[in-house]
Amino acid sequence: MAAPVVYLDHAASTPLRPEAAEAMIEVLGSDYGNPSGAHRLARASRRLIDDARDTLAAGLGCSPGEIVFCAGGTEADNLAVFGVAAATGGTVVCSAVEHHAVLHPVEHMGGRIVAVDRLGRLDLEALADALDETVCLVSVMLANNETGVVQPLEEIAALMAELAPRAVLHTDAVQAFPWLDVASMAVPAQLISVAAHKFGGPKGVGALAVRAGTPLEPQVLGGGQERGLRSGTHNTPGIVAMGVAAGATVAERPATVERVGALRDRLADGIHAAVPDVVETGVDTPGQHRVGAQGGHCVGRPEAGRVDRSGKVAGSAHLCFPGVESEALLFVLEQSGIMASAASSCASGAQDPSHVLAAMGYDRALAGSSLRLSLGHASTDADVDHALAVVPDAVAHLRAAGS
Ligand SMILES: Cc1ncc(COP(=O)(O)O)c(C=O)c1O
Fold first, then answer.
1. Does any ligand 1 atom lie closer than 6 A to the CB of residue 73?
2. 369 lines ligand 1 (CB under 6 A)
3. Rounded to the nearest whole angstrom, what is the distance from the C-alpha of residue 200 to the centroid of ligand 1?
4. Which distant-in-sequence residues (6+ apart) come within 8 Å of 303 by Cβ?
5. Alpha-carbon Rg of the chain, whole angstroms?
6. Does the first or last residue of the chain, that is N or C, have fewer Cβ atoms within 10 Å of its Cβ?
7. Pick from 7, 10, 395: nearest CA to 200
8. Ligand 1 atom closest to residue 195's alpha carbon, by position in its atom list
9. By three-state DSSP, how is residue 162 classified?
C-alpha cells in the first residue's frame, strides 16, 4: 500500500482551499457570460470579477482600479519588467536571487543583476553601484521561493529615491502573500506580482498591482481588457476563486503564521537535533562553528529555539546536508510519502544547480545537498511528526551509503 501523502512543497503550489473550489465550480456552472459583454449574464460575471478585484486590492494595499488580472506569477513578472522597459527605454535591475520569471526577462533586456549576501539579503552597496539616472525599474522579491528570506523594500526604495529617481520598484510577492502583510510591506513598490496557486487558489491566474502613474506598456494586445494593460477574455472562475482564496488568506494570516511558524520551527529544530552538520540557509546562529569556504552558515547542532528565523517567512525550512545528493534524498523521502523539493520547481523537473544558493556563496556540492520543506495553511502536527521520523534516517542512510 502506498504511504500516505505528507505534502511539504507548498512553495511549489498549495492545495486548493475548499471555499475557493466551491466558488470556482459555481462560476463554471452558471456564470459563463463574457465579462466584457453587455447583457445581463455578462454583467453578472463582471460583478463577480469586480468583487474579486476589491478583495485582492485590499490584500495588496492598492485601489481596485490598480489591479491587472493575468495568467499567473510568471506573466505578472514579465509584464512588470518588459512593460516598464518598453514604456521608458531605461535599464532594468534585479537581485541575483529572483525567480526566473524576473531574472530571465532582466537578462533578456541586458539588465543589471545585483549580488546578495551569504544570508540571501540584497547587498545594498552593490545595489547603490547598480543605480544611476538610466535605471527605470528595480525588481526585488519580497520573499524568496527557495530560502524564504525576506528583502528590505523600504531600504531599497530609499536608495532608489536618492540614486535612480525615475526608477520604479517592482516586488514579486508571489511567495510572500501567504505569510506577510503585503498591503503594508509593499507600500514602497509601484508594481506587485501575486499568483493564486501559492495561497490556496487555482493555477494559471494571478495579478500585477500597478499603482496609478506607473509607466507600463501592455505586452498582450487585443480586446483591451484590464484598462488595455492585459487583453484577453477574463478567466472568471479562476479570478473569482483567487479572490476567495485571497480573502481567506488575509483573514487567517496572523493565526496561520503563528501556528505554521511553530510547526516549521519544530521541524527544523528537530532535524538539527537528530542530524549532524546541517547547514540551514538564510539564518544566522551566533556561536555555531563554521564551514570553511561557506563561512558563516549554521552547522552542527544548535539548541532548539536558538536559531533566529525571523528573516524568513513562517512556512520555510531549507536545509543542506553535506555529503547527500538532493535527488537521492527526495527519492527516498517520496518512498515514505513525503513530497518535497530541493530548489524551485522547473519545467523539466530536473534538479538544476540553484542560482539562489550560488548567489549566496554556496559551492556546487553543498547547494546540491539542499532540501526545501515548505509548509502551508494545510500543514499539520502529524506532517511534522512524519517528517521527523523519516528525514534523519534517510540522511543517515544516504551518508552511510555515500549518497
Ligand atoms: C517567487 C515566484 N515568482 C514567480 C513564480 C511564478 O508563478 P507562476 O507559477 O504562477 O507562473 C513563482 C512560482 O514558483 C515564484 O515562486
1. yes
2. no
3. 14
4. none
5. 21
6. N
7. 10
8. 10
9. helix
Question: Is the CB of 174 within 6 Å of ligand 1?
Answer: yes
- Exposure letters 229-267 (e unless 16+ CB within 10 A, then b): bbebebbbbbbbbbbbbbbbbbeebeebbebbbebbbbb
d(CA 311, CA 197): 23
Atom of ligand 1 nearest to the CA of 144: 1
Contact criterion met (CB below 8 Å) for 369 and 322: yes
CA-closest candidate to residue 149, choices 128, 179, 183:
179
Pocket lining: 145 vs ligand 1, CB cutoff 6 Å:
yes
DSSP class of residue 197 equals G
Q: Distance (Å, rounded) from C-alpha 311 to C-alpha 151?
A: 8
Residue among 9, 146, 175 whose CB has most ligand 1 atoms within 8 A, to mutate: 175
175 CB near ligand 1 (under 6 Å):
yes
pTM as predicted: 0.95
Per DSSP, the three-state class of 115 is: coil
Please name the residues in contact with 187: beta carbons below 8 A apart, sequence gap of 6 or more: 61
What type of residue is 255? A
Give the pLDDT score at 330. 97
Pairing outcome for strands 67-70 and 206-210 = antiparallel
pLDDT, tens only, 167-181: 999 999 999 999 999
**Residue type at 45 in one-letter notation:** S
Please tell me the residue having the least CA distance from ligand 1 atom 4.
73
Q: Are 116 and 97 contacting, i.e. CB atoms less than 8 angstroms apart?
A: yes
pLDDT in tens, 215-225: 999 999 999 99
Query: Judging by DSSP bridges, how do beta strands 370-374 and 316-320 pair with one another?
Result: antiparallel
Say if ligand 1 is within 6 A of residue 341 CB: no
Ligand 1 centre distance from Cα of residue 195 (Å):
7
The x, y and z cell numbers of residue 301, run together, are: 547542532
Q: Is the pLDDT of residue 350 over 90?
A: no
Q: Give the Cα separation of 8 and 11 in Å (integer).
A: 8
**Residue carrying the nine cell digits 526577462:** 105
